[in-house]
Amino acid sequence: MTEEIAAALSNGDGYAIGSNVADWDVDGTTTSPAECAARNGLQDVAMALLQDQADVNATDENGRTALHGAAGLGHVAVVRLLLDSHADAGAKDVNGCTAREFATRRHHSDIESLLCDHLELEVKDSEPF
Question: What is the DSSP string of 88-106?
Answer without folding.
Answer: -TT---TTS--HHHHHHHT
